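Q: Can someone sanity-check these two? First one:
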Amino acid sequence: MQQIFRMLMKLFQRARLEKPGQVDPRAAEFTLSLLVAMYDRSGTGYVKTRSAAAALISLSGDTLLAKYRAFFQFYSVPDGKETLITRSALRSLLTDLNQIPAIVGEGCALSCVEIAIRDCFHGVLNAAIVEEKFLSWLRSEPAVLLWLPTCYRLSATEMVSHQARCR
């Protein structure tokens, strides 16, 4: 957790330089507390870097496609000329991402994850899939991750301003 905290400190220091006055000085502490609540419920003092990265990616202000590509990058494995994501890696990703809505009591059961994996690998004979198949499945907005595009759309419209007046 110390390693993650140091990384968060650097991340938020850079964010404070880019957006002065908009980043709380305790942002790294708050973020680490959130990550611990999501990924260290048994109090081991250990949070997987990959799980923390998945949470930070999903909560970032980046585009959905950039988030999806980053997920693939963090959870895939090289296989010769290609990089692939296996069922096991997809299960890890979905389980990690499911901790985000679960922290507010909105997570789904483990069966949702298994259904999503079956859906993603539908018609696939190999043990793993390429990035394009993974991205195509995510663009279909699987139920297990429906919160992610919804949150993205909400944050994308936060700064929209209409010059309309009501009577």
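And here is the second, same format, sequence then tokens:
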Amino acid sequence: QIEGQGHGAVFDCKFSPDGQHFACTDSHGHLLLFGFGCNKYYEKIPDQMFFHTDYRPLIRDANNYVLDEQTQQAPHLMPPPFLVDVDGNPHPTRFQRLVPGRENCKDEQLIPQLGYVANGDGEVVEQVIGQQTNDQDESILDGMIRELQREQDLRLINEGETLPNPPLNRSHSANGG
């Protein structure tokens, strides 16, 4: 029983190497931390943390492999995602560095910048660039991710590695544009 939310299930549980702490995730998206000692370390972490890719649609290719619908790339081969809150707003750079693969990124590479756009009423409003769209109705944040993936692919090719799944045409957005 999850207080205020009804019944739920524990999906995963991991123990610390010393056995003094363990963490669980449940079917409602909660992370539960148990253990002995002080919790000051965990008080620094935001209450809501999601990857911006958590709810992106997936598809299957001709070989029945799972791909990200927008980038046509296997999810485990995509660049590291950004940490966001429940509304999709990115967390500050100190939290973005907690994501494996982003530890040594420059600040400007860690979170999208704020911009100003005209809404439907003609007002100019502040908006996270990751929520804006470009000419192909793709969010600018997704465009940045696609560019990071392209750079990673080029780096792998230059290092003589072959790409596990050659990327399909990434210039199309999720809605087929």
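A (reply): Looked at the second one. Strands lie at 10-15, 21-26, 31-35, 50-51, 58-60, 66-68, 83-84, 114-118, 124-128. The first helix runs from residue 40 to 43.
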